[in-house]
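Before surveying the methods themselves, let us examine one representative protein, pairing a chain with its fold in token form.
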Amino acid sequence: MASSTLICDTDPWKELKAHVDDIKQTHLRNLMSDSHRCNSMMVEFDGLFLDYTRQQARQDTMDKLLRLAQAARLKEKIHKMFGGEHINSTENRSVLHVALRAPRDKVICSDGKNVVPEVWKVLDKINEFSEKIRSGSWVGETGKALMDVIAVGIGGSFLGPLFVHTALQTDPEAMACSKGRQLRFLANVDPVDVAKSITGLNPETTLVVVVSKTFTTAETMLNARTLREWISTALGPQAVAKHMVAVSTNLTLVEKFGIDPNNAFAFWDWVGGRYSVCSAVGILPLSLQYGFPLVEKFLKGASSIDQHFYSESFEKNMPVLLGLLSVWNVSFLGYPARAILPYAQALEKFAPHIQQLSMESNGKGVSIDGIPLPFETGEIDFGEPGTNGQHSFYQLIHQGRVIPCDFIGVVKTQQPVYLKGELVSNHDELMSNFFAQPDALAYGKTPEELRSENVAEHLIPHKTFTGNRPSLSLLLPSLNAYNIGQLLAIYEHRIAVQGFIWGINSFDQWGVELGKSLATQVRKQLHVSRTEGKPVKGFNHSTTTLITKYLKATSDTPSELPTLLPKI
């Protein structure tokens, strides 16, 4: 396929389009009765078990999807990514988040230079620094140990690390490593988020990690200045150097801010924000909380999947299979959404991270060559841990719109609970739902079955479940640091596979820029209206009316702002 040829113009794409009617005439009840088919749709790797038997697909469907992968030059694109080629063509950058968790002896090059030694130089620095903080050899301005950390960042500098932290918080090994410590995240520029992040904390025992590659991100830097003021007011401006560090490449602005450049931790242009959890963005705050030895296990889990993704045949390659099935569901079966349903409360922040990872990566309308696409890309991702989601939106996925579901289960719970006299343990109760829900979606319940149960005739239409609703199940052996790394990498690579097949650039995000530039104009207007009383102008009628009403209702805001910190 020539680089400028759209994937929808290839024969494998057309074959899949022609295949849809055939598949839609086949119910999952029938597909699930074929044991040979079911066995072929189960994959195991490194303790993980993937079952995609409840997808609306047969073996010939998978063969056609694999031919589509060949037409899209998927293997070549994967090798180019691992080889450091500038596959992010709109920003002329390599895409090398895999290098962030590579073993020391691995060779991964960008622009002819092996970047792995640079990665490990930063990881070693994180290890050394976090141990100083955790051991108490580095103390705050008043000599007290720094037991509390606030990580300031937004988007990819927040959602990924928050997911990993939330997943580790209830893991016994991680709990033992973090006893007496707190890690909080400050992302939103809303002052309420500032208030919540510092409530109950003492500046004397708090370390702030400011995460901004350029040290210019508007929301992050305003929040950083706010916390600098919080520290300076309590301890004096000289305390900033002991209580604030940075994850940034702009050492000039770091120093100008008041942070010692020696306490800045680097990351690189070849790390996209939403793919940066394994860089200093995530590893520094996580190591401060849990210690680097535990966090290194997380990196090893991700690296295990990286190698699987790179070297395993596509027929047994978990991220490839998941990516191809997502393309099948979105582009051929016409299902635009995906529900991410972890049956593990510790994964409550997983779906929000995947929302950004997926929707920012693949929410594109043009090919990588800039050609408008005649088909939709990307998925609407949402989710909630089971069983909470069952009492929220499962009604829709059972009897309303068809939404393919990812069920994620864990064999061994982080926190076992047994009650004498109960039929099953608490975790068995949870897993009973994990095993039952995919079958309920696949098989449904027919009017005939309801009549055999003597259901009143007028209720039969309301209690009928059509079934034939696709899902897949991913079973993890446990939820420790290693497994969390595996889970992250599976979804990172799955999303890349989708983009590679669709022929888009999954590694830029121009869609977030326009709103930010318009916000700059509004910011200037608010300033001149407050300080000089100038009327609102230069906006459309709707925006002018809204801003004017806002200014009128907040007229008590001082024109020259004094320092005012949260009072919670």
